Structures are given as C-alpha cells and as structure tokens.
Amino acid sequence: MKIRHWLGIVLGIASLALSGIAAQAQQAGGTLVMLVQPEPPSLASYLSTSGPIGLVAPKIYDGLLDYDKDLKAVPSLAESWKVSDDGKTVTFNLRKDVKWHDGKPFTSADVQYTIMNVLKKVHPRGPNSFKEVTEIETPDAHTAIFKLANPAPYMMRSFGSYESPIVPKHLLEGQDARSASIANNPVGTGPFKFVEWKKGQYIRLDKNENYWKEGLPYLDRIVGRFIPDASTRTAAMEKGEVHYGAYGAIPNVDVVRLRELKSIGVTTDGYAMINPVSLIEFDTTKAPFDNPAIRRAISLTLDRKFLIDNIWFGYGKPATSALSSSYAATGLYAEGMPNYPGKPDVAAAKKMLDDAGIKPDANGVRAKATLDLIPYGEDWRRAGEYMKQALAEIGIQLDLRYEDVPTWLKRVYADYDFSMNVNYFYQLPDPVLGVHRHYGTDQIRQGTHFVNSSRYSNPKLDALLDSGAKEPDAAKRSAMYKEIQEILANDMPVVNLHEMKFLTVFNSKLKGHDASGFGAYGSFDRTWFDK
C-alpha cells in the first residue's frame, strides 16, 4: 500500500474518531497516530532499551509496577508488595484476572522466568537491577517472592513496563531469547495488542478488549509512523496528520515555531524517570583513544553551552561529571570534577596532548577517527558537524558516519567496530540502574546494547561500584560516589556532554499521555482525545 493512500485511510479513521467523541472527559475511541523515530530495530524491550522500542513496547507489555509523575510506585501486574525488615525478601501479590494477548493466564511462573532467565541474562540493565536476586519463589500462581543476597532498595525503581517488561514464559521457554520470534511479534498483557508492522511505514496496535484494567484503554488504536525526514515530520504534526512526537521526533529548531500554535502543545514533562545524558564513547582498547590524555583533551575542547544553545535551543544543562546533577538531591552528585570546564580550554587541551606525546604532523593533524552518530535525528547530525569543527582546533580530524539503527547498534555493541560514538544514556533514578552499566568490567557484554562498549576496565572502580550498590549508610555511599566520579573524570572513558531536556510535541486535543512517570514510554492506557 502506498504511503499516501495508507495515510488517507489513517487520517480518515482519526478524524472520524475525533469528530464522534463526546464532550465529556475521557470518552473512549479514536486512533492515535504517533511518531516513532527512527524505526525500531525490533520490539524486544527485554533485549534492548533502544529509544524507539521504548515508544512502542510498553503499550504491549506490562511491568509489575508503574510509577506516577512523582516517581512513586503504583500497582500494575502486582496489586501489592511488601519488603521485609532486613530488605532481603520482597513479596509481590499478583493480579488474578490477567491474561496474555493469546488468551493464556498470566502467573507467577512468568515473573520468575522473566527475571531469572531473561532480564538478569540478556537485558542491558537487568544484570545490575536484579544483581542481588538469588531466586524467586512461586508458592502459588499469584505470589512471587524475591530472595536477595543483600538489600537492594534501588531495585524497587526498576519494575516499570519500559524497564522490566514481564514476558510470557510459554512463548520463550526453551528458546534463545536473543533470537525468539516474539521479538517482532510481541505478546503481552498490556492495553494494546500488536497487529501489524509494515516495514518502513508503520506499526499498528489495537485495543486489548480484555485488558485487566476495567474500562481501559480509551483509545481504539495506536499507529506508530516512521517518517525519516525531519521537515516532513514537522509538517505532519502541524497539519494534524500525527498527534504525538517525543524524544526529539520534532527537531527543537521547529518546536520553537510550533509551540506558538494553539493546536500544538509542548512539554518537557515525562522524562524525570530517565535522567538522559548525551555523551561520547571511545574504544579505549585501541590507539589513539587508549590514551586517557586524548579523551580528557576532547572534554576540555568541546563547548557544551554552545551545543545546548545552538543544537538543542537552550533545552539542557552542561554535564559536569559522570553523574547527572539530578543526583544532588540524593547526595551522590559531586561538584567540581576535573576536565569538565565551564568554558572550552583549547590551550590546555593542546598542552595536554603535547605532554602526552601526541604531536601534530606537518598538516597539524594529531589523530584521525570516524565519529559514529546515534541515528535518532537531525540534531545529532548537527552536533556531529560542530564536534568535527571544534576538534579540528586541537588537531583531531574526524569523519562523520550516520547509519540506520540496526547497523549502528551492531557496529557499536556487537562488532566493536568504532572509534568514537556520540550517544545518550539514561542514568535513571539511581546510578546502580543507569550508570554502573557504562563503566563496570562485568558490563563488557558483547552484543548487549547500551552497556560498556568502551571496554573500559578499572579494578578499583569495579570495587567501588560494587560497594556503592550495597552501602546502606547515606554518608558513606556519598563518599564512594565522589571517588567514583573523580576516577572517571581522570580516566574519562566517556565524555559526558549535557544533561538532556527532551521535548514532547502533541496535538492539543490529546489528553492523558503524561499519566505515567515514564511519559512517552508509558502504556497510554489513560490517553484520550478531547472533542
């Protein structure tokens, strides 16, 4: 089916749904057309935390818990839970009225299998999130008892459908989770069922008529559209052809204009749970980036404020450490880390390179490298162009490479076939969940996305990460993380660039899309259209 013809059908459905909705709030019906940019490599959220997967999969899969906009845990597949006094036992009481989309009953066996056989083994963050879980007892079909080697309070932040989707044991058992067919034909317990994936065009999800939340979801259908061209995405939003775009789907340069329209809403809400930070990863095992001096020099050279003001139009904050400043409230963020200047210091960077013996040749070139750009939109291309110009000042000559998502993920995380990689990581509500995976030696997990692709390894840091995860005393834990940040600021396996502030752009008739603390990564079970 041609895109234009298909679009006409979808728009017709959407406009009919909108025109027929009654005036009262939260009226059921309608087709939500949302931007999914770029097209996801799969829908296996239990394997990859790639952003485009996160936009779709949480509508299909549920987690044990959800989180409200204040980041407080609320019931989902678990209707209640209890943590023992010593913190080593967590008991979840599961809902009894839940069925998988294929009609099979959801039970505690699914929870046990998901955590122990899938998330702890193949998920990017699962091995850290559930590191202390030694076993899960299932005394009956609706009780799951987590046994922990040590208390892990951070674990209670990791049970959302985006972070830890519960998957059907009966469709995965006996298979390799990395190659199971459910990856592109998902079966969940969530508010929407997977119906169709038309490659290069759209993903269609339809309402789960047997959803365990009575009366939900409100929407009849969600269509996730893939539109590679940024200007076309913007035009589609402006014309009302699509209703929702998050995570930079609409470039910030266009948001500045669209936010003035009455038909368009713009918000920065819905991202508090993830704490995104943009960064540069290096292959620390090969020259020239096996030398920490060149990594530090790059950090000294880049103008973080320029990136924020000119690429992201003021939305963001310069990174000053390996940890986001959002951790200041917990006492874990340390100010004043070296090699994170308030303004670029090109002279200091050149001296650092000279002192390290990395001298310019007759043409002024000290090193050559290819900079791989995360393929998530035009903002990243523009950021790459700036970095190419900026690093030329200190004699680092860059070529830019921009590929599709599957090729990029394979290059960086499976083949380790890169020198420098511009990317962003979610630091999440606790560093054990979002930061440790980037630096721990045990997180050099070839083939797993968004972990330690730099292959940086430091035994002293490993010991601190392990201790920091277990330390119950707040003051002692704070001291450990200060030392962690000092080590990383000097070794600089990753140059953190800025604490990102994403924008969500939406049709003003769309309501309830921000009901979950995960925002765009939420289930959308309470999303609805006003008249």
Explain the overall architecture:
By secondary structure, this protein is α+β, with helices and mostly antiparallel strands. The chain folds into 3 domains: 3-60 and 190-271 and 503-529, Periplasmic binding protein-like II (D-Maltodextrin-Binding Protein, domain 2, 3-Layer(aba) Sandwich), CATH 3.40.190.10; 65-172, Alpha-Beta Complex (Dipeptide-binding Protein, domain 1); 276-500, Dipeptide-binding Protein, Domain 3 (Dipeptide-binding Protein, domain 3). Helix content is 29%, strand content 20%.
**Strand order in the largest sheet:** 14-18-13-17-15-16
Number of helices: 16
- What is the CATH third-level topology name of the largest domain? Dipeptide-binding Protein, domain 3
Strand content: 15-25%
Number of domains: 3
Gross morphology is globular
CATH architecture of the largest domain, by name, is Roll
CATH fourth-tier homologous superfamily of the largest domain: Dipeptide-binding Protein, Domain 3
What is the CATH top level name of the largest domain? Alpha Beta
Low-confidence stretches: 1-24
Summarize the structure.
With about 525 residues, the chain is of the alpha+beta class.
Keywords summarizing the entry:
531 residues; alpha+beta; D-Maltodextrin-Binding Protein, domain 2; Dipeptide-binding Protein, domain 1; Dipeptide-binding Protein, domain 3; 3 domains; six-stranded mixed beta sheet; four-stranded mixed beta sheet; 16 helices; 20% strand
